[in-house]
UniProtKB/TrEMBL annotation:
GO terms for biological process, alphabetical: regulation of DNA-templated transcription
Name of this chain's protein: DNA-binding response regulator
PROSITE patterns recorded: HTH_LUXR_2 (PS50043)
HTH luxR-type domain: residues covered: 148-213
Highest taxon of source: Bacteria
Keywords annotated in UniProt: DNA-binding, Transcription, Transcription regulation
A Pfam family per the record: GerE
SMART domains: HTH_LUXR (SM00421)
Alphabetical list of InterPro entries matching this protein: Sig_transdc_resp-reg_C-effctor, Tscrpt_reg_LuxR_C, WH-like_DNA-bd_sf
GO terms assigned for molecular function: DNA binding
């Protein structure tokens, strides 16, 4: 059965819910759906209280928001991300920093087009420019092709536990608390894990874990 366009809600991530955001208001009007505002502090609570939010983010305001909460959980799998007002071609690492990126719109794209794309995301579709989709596809193919076979990776039990925690979106502090170790020790373990898996960052390590540790998760 086709999903109703009203089944899910898009939330606009902003620094101040009381402020006006004309561009978002235009998208909201064209989409004919309310787009509630949510501040970074509320987003942290949302991880515990509300699952599967769709977040609309103004790329021009993203860095201040990220600075406000350094562990802003945009890479967490429970959040689908739509970014708009993008003024340049983003690097692969920048794209990956948005985690479950579902939509991307460049600066000066009409609100009608953004609203159309948002509607598709609500209905569980992607709305990504062709070059961005190709960029991400190339990255994930490279990750899969370059991963070492599990039999040749000598991971300790503690390292496996940390990898499993990464796949849940846990921060270093959360992992430290769960395993009763220091944050410094977590960072040390992550360094060794990245080295053993021949990966560069958490995103690549998570991709490896999801492919190779399925039976243990």
């Amino acid at each position: 059965m086709a999903k109703n366009i009203y089944a899910r809600t898009i939330y606009f991530l902003c620094a101040d819910k009381t402020a006006r955001y004309p561009e978002v208001e235009r998208i909201e009007k064209t989409l004919a759906l309310p787009i509630p505002k949510i501040e970074p502090g509320e987003l942290m609570l949302a991880m515990q209280q509300h699952k599967h939010k769709i977040l609309l983010v103004d790329y021009q305001n993203y860095q201040p928001l990220n600075n406000a909460i350094r562990n802003l959980p945009l890479t967490h799998k429970i959040f689908e991300i739509i970014i708009f007002n993008v003024d340049k071609r983003l690097t692969t690492d920048e794209l990956l920093s948005f985690g479950n990126l579902k939509g991307l719109f460049y600066k000066n794209e009409p609100s009608e087009k953004i609203a159309l794309g948002c509607g598709e995301v609500i209905n569980s579709q992607n709305w990504l420019p062709r070059k961005v989709a190709a960029q991400l596809l190339h990255h994930y193919r490279h990750v899969i092709d370059s991963q070492t076979a599990p039999a040749t990776v000598d991971l300790t039990t503690r390292e496996i536990h940390i990898l499993q925690s990464l796949t849940t979106g846990a921060s270093n502090i959360q992992i430290a608390e769960d395993l009763f170790i220091s944050e410094y020790t977590v960072k040390s373990h992550l360094y060794q894990i990245f080295k053993k898996l021949s990966v560069k960052n958490r995103v690549q390590a998570i991709a490896w874990a999801k492919q190779h540790l399925v039976s243990q998760m």
